[in-house]
UniProtKB/TrEMBL annotation:
EC nos: 1.1.1.239, 1.1.1.n12
Reaction(s) catalysed by this chain's protein: testosterone + NAD(+) = androst-4-ene-3,17-dione + NADH + H(+); 17beta-estradiol + NAD(+) = estrone + NADH + H(+); a (3R)-3-hydroxyacyl-CoA + NAD(+) = a 3-oxoacyl-CoA + NADH + H(+); 17beta-hydroxy-5alpha-androstan-3-one + NAD(+) = 5alpha-androstan-3,17-dione + NADH + H(+)
Annotated GO CC locations: mitochondrial matrix
Protein's organism: Phaedon cochleariae
GO terms for MF: estradiol 17-beta-dehydrogenase [NAD(P)+] activity; quinone binding; testosterone dehydrogenase (NAD+) activity
UniProt name for this protein: (3R)-3-hydroxyacyl-CoA dehydrogenase
Keywords: Fatty acid biosynthesis, Fatty acid metabolism, Lipid biosynthesis, Lipid metabolism, Mitochondrion, NAD, Oxidoreductase, Phosphoprotein
One GO term of the biological process aspect: estrogen metabolic process
Pathway assigned in UniProt: Lipid metabolism; fatty acid biosynthesis; Steroid biosynthesis; estrogen biosynthesis
Keyword Glycosyltransferase: no
Domain (Ketoreductase): residue spans on this chain: 7-195
Subunit: Heterotetramer with CBR4; contains two molecules of HSD17B8 and CBR4.
Length: 249
């Protein structure tokens, strides 16, 4: 039995990788999906890949999570179409700008923090205010951190700091929003085969694989299935949780 029938879900970064797989799997579970991404072409590709029945009604939006005005516009478009905000929010948009600390530019530091951490803050704040105003008291926010936010990683001071921030933003938000019926949880993926990882040099990829007990990278669906669980009432008492999905890394 599909677990998300009648629910509306916003997926940021829905144009690629984990976000795209999440759109497909939440739609399979019966949700209507708002696919939001900075890359509008990819939004269309994701919309085309979603299988759904006539009770579902999807929307594609070009949105930059790092810009408050863009997120506010996305909320406006959502309310115009559905007359309600989503009760599922998946903060999946993310970028890397890797370099060793001694060479990392201020611009690359700022950009990663702005998209990964500030973007998660802006989307959560702006959409959750609407959830509260609309009296929705069963909502789930799923943030995507990273295992490197716990352990650090060479060449990723900016990225690992942004993801550590996402984890603690999640835990604090869960304390503030739990009494409103809004659950907030974070997933820490390990190495997942997506365009983001394809940019990592093959030699480095092999080194990482050695460190994973399951000796393979995950695929985007293996994260999306956990997201679907957190979105659904099957996880109704989970709030403020951190779930590592890493193949044991
Ligand atoms: N792939 C991995 O191994 C891995 C591991 C840990 C965490 N993550 C996290 O998972 C999430 C998804 O990553 P992925 O691997 O699917 O990467 P991806 O590059 O395939 O997808 C990221 C998507 O985010 C979008 N995006 C980037 N900046 C944006 C912005 N400002 N506003 C809106 N959309 C924006 C991109 O256009 C892209 O469609 C990211 O937050 C990433 O940090 C990935």
């Amino acid at each position: 039995m599909s677990s998300l029938i009648g629910r509306l879900a916003l997926v940021t970064g829905g144009g690629s990788g984990i976000g795209q797989a999440t759109c497909r799997i939440l739609a399979r579970e019966g949700a209507s999906i708002i696919v939001a991404d900075r890359a509008s072409k990819n939004v269309q590709k994701t919309l085309q890949s979603i299988q759904s029945d006539t009770t579902q009604n999807h929307l594609g939006l070009e949105m930059d999570v790092a810009k408050a005005t863009s997120v506010e516009d996305a909320l406006k478009n959502t309310l115009e179409k559905y007359a309600k905000p989503p009760s599922i929010i998946v903060n999946c948009a993310g970028i890397t700008r890797d370099n060793f600390l001694l060479k990392l530019s201020e611009e690359d530091f700022d950009e990663v923090i702005n998209v990964n951490l500030k973007g998660t803050f802006l989307v959560t704040k702006i959409f959750t205010n609407s959830i509260v105003q609309n009296g929705i008291n069963n909502a789930s926010i799923i943030n995507i951190g990273s295992i490197v936010g716990d352990y650090g990683n060479l060449g990723q001071t900016n990225y690992s700091a942004s993801k550590a921030g996402v984890e603690l933003l999640t835990r604090t938000a869960s304390k503030e929003l739990g009494n409103l019926g809004i659950r907030v949880n974070v997933i820490l993926p390990g190495m997942i085969r997506t365009p983001m990882i394809d940019a990592v040099p093959p030699k480095v990829q092999e080194k990482f694989k050695e460190l994973i007990p399951m000796k393979r990278f995950g695929n985007a669906e293996e994260i999306a299935e956990v997201i679907a669980f957190l979105a659904s009432d099957k996880s109704s008492y989970m709030n403020g949780a951190t779930i590592k999905v890493t193949g044991g890394f």
